[in-house]
Amino acid sequence: MYWLAAGVGALDVRGTAGGISGYELAVAPSTPGVPRMLWGAGAEAWLRAFKAPVVDSEIDDDTREVFSRLAEMSIVVRSQSGARTGVGLSDSWLVSVQHELVYALLAHAAREADVDIVFIKGPVLFAQGLRTREHSGDVDCWVRPGGERALAAAIAPWGWRIVPTAFDGTAVAHSVTLVPGEWGCEIDVHWRFPGMTLDPDSAFDLVHESAEQRVFAGATVRTPSPAMHAVIYALHELRPVSGRQYSDSQFQSAVMALTAAGPQAIDIASRVGAGYVLHEALQLSFPNEEVPESNQLVPEDWEWRKIVSVPQRQLAAVRNVDVWQRPRVIFRLLWPTRDTSRRIRDAADASPRGLRRVKVKRLWDGIRTYLRAQ
Q: In what order do the strands lie in the sheet with 2-5?
C-alpha cells in the first residue's frame, strides 16, 4: 500500500510575497473544496509523497496519521498500485496564490470537459512586458465557441456559477461571467473577443495554435504569444464601455503593449480583423512600418457600444440578435433575473421585496431615460 500526493495543482509558497507568511505549500484538492495551506509535518509529508510513493509499511503511526489527515483533505491518496496521480508543483510567481491555483483548477476542469482553453490578459501581460500592472482581480480565459457552458458546468462543483444576462446565447454576448463561492476569484470565460471581425472559431484557432506554454501551480497551460496578446489587450483597452470611449491612458496602454510586442502585431491585427479598431494605435507604435488602411470591416458590436443612453444602447444591441431570440432578450432586459439584479450596487444584500423594488425602479428609470432621449 502506498501514499501518493494528489491535487489539481500545488505551489511552493515559501518566501512568496503573496501574504501567507508561515505556510510552505498551497494545494488545490483533487475533489471539490478550498485550497489547503500546509506547513510543518503536513507540508513535509505531502512533499515526501510528491517526490516518490511512500510505502505504508515503512512509516510510523504518527506519520501515517498525518497522511490520513491529508487524505481527508483530498490532497493525498492511498493506493495499491503506487501509480502517480499527475499533480504538479511549482514555485509561486503571482501576487495572489489563490488566483494562481484557479488557473490550475480551470486547466483541470477544461481537460475533464474536453474543452480547449487559452488563458488571456491578467498577470501574463505583465510577465510578457505588455502591461505595467501586475495583478488582476479575476481570471480570464478563452475557449472554443460552444465550450463556455461545458467549462462552466465542469467548474460548478467547485463553487462557481454563471451570472445570467439578457443576451446569453446570442451573437451579442462574448463571454460568460462565473462568480465564486469560497474561492473568491471571479472568472470570465470568453468565446470570442470584441473588436475582431474574423469569425470566432477561426479567431480561436489562431490564438490556440500560436499560444505559448506557461506553468501555474504545477499545471502547464496555454497563453497567447506576445504579439497576439498585445492585440487582445489593445482591443480590450480601446473597447467602448457603457457608451464611454477609451481614455488617453488606455490608448497609451494599447500603444505600449503593441510597441513592446513588435511589428508582428501588425500582421496579427490584420489576420484577426482588428485593423479598424487598432489602426491609429498601430501607426503610432510602428511609424516606420506599413500599416494597412483603416477602411476594414467594422466590428458588428462596435457602434452600439458607443451609445451613451442605456435603453438606446440596449435596443441597438437587440437589433443584432436573431428575430426569434428577441422576445426573450427584451423581457430579460426589462426584468432581469435575481442573480443579475443582485449585481446592481444597491441590491446586493436586498430582501426579495427590496430586490423587486430595485428592479421596478430600474425599469422605470430606463423608460424615462429612453423617452427623454427621443
A: 54-55, 2-5, 76-79
CB neighbours of residue 40 within 10 Å: 11
Q: Which residues are registered as beta bridge partners of 102?
A: none
At 165-198, the pLDDT tens digits run 888 888 899 999 999 999 999 999 999 999 999 9
Report yes or no: 3 and 76 within 8 Å, Cβ to Cβ.
Answer: yes
Q: Nearest 10 degrees: CA dihedral of 195, 198, 202, 206?
A: -60
φ and ψ at residue 4, rounded to 5 degrees: -130, 140
pLDDT tens digits for 219-261?
Answer: 999 999 999 999 999 999 999 988 889 999 999 999 999 999 9
- Is residue 36 classed as helix, strand or coil in its secondary structure? strand
Strand boundaries in the chain, DSSP class E: 2-5, 9-12, 25-28, 36-38, 54-55, 76-79, 89-91, 117-120, 139-143, 161-162, 175-179, 187-190, 212-216, 219-223
Q: How far apart are CA 194 and CA 37, in angstroms?
A: 39
Closest by alpha carbon to 272, among 184, 196, 369? 196
